[in-house]
Write a sequence for this structure.
């Protein structure tokens, strides 16, 4: 596992993140570079990766802003930055339990400007 950062380029937004030391992070890193198309759901951006992973013991649906999640069933990276249609109050509740595999260095609220269909690229930060 490398300590190098990865960069998400989503439309005009760039988010740098540090991978955690997890099996999910290893699987995603092995698949880099990833190119996909953004989907939005409330204040969440998610996108297909084609990566296979299993649900980890500490998986959860409620995340903190800045935690980068992986939705196992959908093979998608999910980045929540505010309430979704199933949130209670201001919490960031994703559609299912997810593996938290990275932490954003940049403010994920910048993703508010992302639209469904925007191109996403995930690769090593230079």
């Amino acid at each position: 596992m490398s300590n190098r950062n990865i960069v998400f380029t989503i439309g005009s937004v760039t988010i740098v993140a540090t991978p955690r030391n997890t099996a999910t992070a290893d699987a995603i890193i092995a698949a880099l570079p990833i190119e996909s198309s953004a989907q939005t759901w409330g204040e969440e951006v998610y996108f297909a990766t084609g990566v296979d992973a299993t649900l980890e013991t500490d998986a959860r649906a409620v995340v903190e802003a800045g935690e980068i999640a992986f939705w196992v069933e959908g093979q998608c990276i999910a980045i929540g930055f505010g309430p979704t249609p199933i949130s209670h109050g201001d919490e960031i509740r994703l559609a299912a339990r997810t593996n938290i595999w990275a932490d954003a260095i940049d403010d994920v609220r910048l993703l508010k400007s992302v639209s469904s269909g925007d191109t996403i690229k995930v690769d090593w930060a230079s």
Notes: The chain has one domain: 6-124. The chain has one helix and ten strands.
